Amino acid sequence: MRLNTEVALAAGISAGALIAYELSNGSSWFRLWLKDQLSPMVRIGTVAELYIHPIKSCRAHMVNEALCTDFGLVHDELRDRNFLIIDATTKKFLTARQLPKMVLVETEIRNNKMTLMFHEAHSLRSIISINLDDVVSNADIIPTVVWGTNTNGYDCGDEIGEWLQKSLGSQEPLRLLYFVPGVNTSRKVVPEQNWQFNKVPQRSDEAAYADLASYMAVSQASLDNLNSKFEGREFSMRNFRPNIVVGGCPEFDEDRWDEIRIGSHVRFTCFKPCSRCVLTTVDPRTGVKGADVEPLKTLRQYRLAPGALREIYKQSPIFGVNMGVDEAGEVKVGDPVFARYKPTPF
Q1: C-beta atoms surrounding 109 within 10 Å
Q2: Which residue among 30, 199, 222, 248 has the highest number of C-beta atoms inside a 10 angstrom radius?
Q3: Taking every annotated instance into account, which residue ranges of this chain make up the domain MOSC (predicted)?
Q4: Is the pTM above the cut of 0.85?
């Protein structure tokens, strides 16, 4: 009898230890199963649009399907924010905040040959191509810093640097960096615990050249709400540079997303509201920064962070949500989207 009691006690301790381990492991099947039982996901809409921005701050590609990876969306040979323009002298990264004409640079990659096209006044002004195999074989790696974290990339060479400087009207010499996962230094994105009112997920994501997360999602209704505040003027989703646009859910529904699932298994955790800056004022069609500071000015009237979060985000309004991928896979336009909600917004 005593032996049976000891066996039962040992089994109970082992089971308890297993449950404790599974609960502490955020990606475990048991934890996911338990969360689904306690707080089920509900269908909120469908994938309306997918965007890939091969060069940070340059023109986006709208695609019908993409592979979700740790480093962002991938479609054929296009990877999101896999190239970065830097100041050749200071090695500081540059965006359309400093060089608004960057939004007019379009990227194509086929058979590892990258072609850049500069469009202005609705016409193609110049074009240049490079072989990415040559870029890698040259192995000229340049270090840089993106929002306080060290990274690096393969230098794409003098010719493309000079082409970018001329096309973008830069007073300073430029370089284009190419990120190759596993070779170049990836950046760790670790959420800060004061980023939102609700419990911030403990996680560490990898990023290439994205600002703070490899994924940003926004609802179509949020953009519709913003545009309703203007007469005779309409802003594009390209002003906000998301990866995933969700249709069918209410405006600013993303404020309350804890996790989302696309299709049957591709999962994301939402860990930070997406705060907005002057980049939203650059017209994606003309590459001109709006003198009236719109739509940022209007967003500041009703989308500033509430309460204590105002001290963090200050005058940067919230529009969209930053996410990290938990379960990779393919997604496509029209896929159903499910969400698990937080108790309160943000």
Answers
A1: 16
A2: 222
A3: 174-340
A4: yes
